[in-house]
């Protein structure tokens, strides 16, 4: 992210900086081609690439704020690959949206320096950049990220109705008192001071088993303005994070201290997921959560890339899942890929009901293809 003038370019010499998969680096620091971009010449010598058929490149860039960013991707082709006939063709995704289709650096700019610029809405302070091989290797020379504005127009926050199926208990062996108690009295209104009467979430008998986590999956992206937590007496810290199942950012710490009182906590985050955690304690006890915000308009942030105006919405459910996942909606001639977190394709199918019983617990990526075009991709959790 650009924080200084002149631009504070960061070198990427050893393991990939901000890379979430393993891939390679090569090239020379000297480069004397035609450069009409804003980047320095020496940016176009070295480059990152993934070997054909191997793990595909994925980056996760931490940012200082949510909002709208200009993202510039810099490329340059070498005569080494051109002469050998191994020029790469690949797709590029920003925030799970395909922004470059069947991109070939040489066909686009020959040996000149090339820049592709995009306006991207980042809603969790992490910019995701993913590559997908079509022919030979994917490659990139540099990335420039510039903050533009907050991106989201102001809207009135409303109560977000929480359901039991949205809660995933991540405590080993399951919690002593279920986290489902946190959402079983959603008709109680914090503003009318109606008090929930259920038990509190209690993760364990023993502090030594900490940390303890539960995950809340809202099913789609929301701007989450604030929460009311119904406090149940003991004094301890409850940590709240947003993000994704493979990457969390702590956004609030609430210290419980008031017996049977609703307490407001500012969250000011955009996410589909929230993580509630206790570290070195079992006493951050609450017995109901009330969330306020609004759903992000799916026409502004869509993973669907189809030409028709009546394209179906695809959803993976249940998520997390134990033995089988389903894909809501189906199209003819679809191909579904399941990949591990390193980008390796585990298997392909044309079915909407997918058996995942034999894969280990963890985070996986599902990609849905229509005639070789990725029209949907999303992560899911396998959790026995």
Produce the secondary structure layout.
Blueprint: E1 24-26, E2 47-50, E3 58-62, E4 67-75, H1 79-84, E5 89-94, E6 97-103, H2 105-109, E7 114-122, E8 126-135, E9 138-140, E10 142-149, E11 158-160, E12 167-169, E13 212-232, E14 236-244, E15 247-256, E16 259-278, E17 286-295, E18 315-317, E19 324-328, E20 334-339, E21 345-349, E22 353-355, E23 362-370, E24 373-382
Antiparallel strand pairs: 1-2, 2-9, 3-8, 4-7, 4-10, 5-6, 5-8, 11-17, 12-13, 13-16, 13-17, 14-15, 14-16, 18-19, 19-22, 20-21, 20-23, 23-24
Describe the structure.
With 384 residues, the chain is an all-beta fold. It is 3% helix and 47% strand. It contains 2 helices and 24 strands. The strands form 6 sheets. Strands 11, 12, 13, 14, 15, 16 and 17 form a 7-stranded antiparallel β-sheet that branches. A hairpin with a 6-residue loop joins β18 and β19. Residues 298-311 have low confidence and may be disordered.
Summarize this, please?
The protein is an all-beta fold.
- Biggest sheet statistics: 7 strands, antiparallel
What percentage of amino acids are in beta strands? Answer: over 45%
Q: Which geometry do the CA atoms define?
A: elongated
Using only C-alpha atoms, the radius of gyration works out to 23 Å
Query: How many separate helices?
Result: 2
Secondary-structure class: mainly beta
| Low-confidence runs | 298-311
N→C terminal distance: 38 Å
Q: Percentage of helical residues? A: under 10%
**Average pLDDT level:** 85
Strand tally: 24
């Amino acid at each position: 992210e650009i924080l200084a003038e002149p631009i504070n370019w960061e070198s990427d010499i050893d393991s990939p900086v901000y890379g979430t998969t393993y891939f390679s680096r090569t090239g020379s620091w000297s480069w004397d081609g035609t450069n009409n971009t804003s980047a320095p010449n020496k940016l176009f010598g070295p480059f990152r690439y993934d070997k054909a058929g191997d793990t595909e490149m994925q980056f996760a860039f931490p940012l200082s704020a949510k909002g709208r960013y200009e993202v510039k991707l810099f490329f340059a082709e070498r005569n080494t690959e051109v002469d050998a006939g191994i020029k790469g063709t690949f797709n590029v995704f920003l925030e799970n949206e395909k922004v470059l289709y069947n991109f070939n650096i040489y066909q686009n700019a020959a040996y000149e320096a090339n820049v592709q610029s995009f306006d991207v809405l980042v809603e969790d302070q992490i910019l995701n950049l993913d590559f997908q091989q079509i022919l030979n290797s994917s490659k990139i020379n540099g990335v420039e990220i510039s903050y533009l504005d907050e991106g989201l127009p102001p809207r009135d926050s409303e109560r977000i109705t929480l359901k039991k199926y949205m809660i995933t208990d991540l405590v080993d062996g399951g919690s002593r008192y279920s986290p489902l108690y946190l959402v079983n009295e959603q008709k109680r209104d914090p503003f009318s001071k109606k008090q929930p009467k259920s038990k509190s979430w209690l993760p364990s008998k023993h502090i030594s088993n900490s940390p303890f986590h539960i995950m809340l999956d809202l099913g789609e992206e929301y701007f989450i303005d604030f929460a009311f937590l119904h406090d149940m007496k003991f004094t301890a810290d409850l940590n709240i994070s947003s993000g994704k199942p493979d990457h969390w950012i702590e956004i609030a710490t609430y210290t419980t201290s008031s017996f049977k009182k609703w307490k407001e906590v500012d969250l000011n985050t955009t996410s589909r997921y929230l993580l509630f955690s206790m570290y070195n304690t079992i006493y951050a006890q609450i017995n109901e959560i009330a969330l306020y915000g609004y759903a992000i308009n799916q026409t502004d942030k869509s993973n669907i890339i189809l030409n028709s105006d009546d394209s179906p919405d695809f959803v993976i459910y249940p998520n997390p899942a134990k033995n089988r996942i389903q894909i809501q909606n189906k199209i003819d001639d679809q191909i579904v890929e399941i990949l591990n977190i390193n980008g390796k394709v585990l298997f392909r199918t044309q079915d909407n009901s997918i058996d995942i019983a034999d894969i280990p617990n963890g985070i996986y990526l599902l990609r849905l293809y229509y005639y070789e075009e990725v029209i949907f991709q999303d992560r899911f959790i396998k959790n026995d």
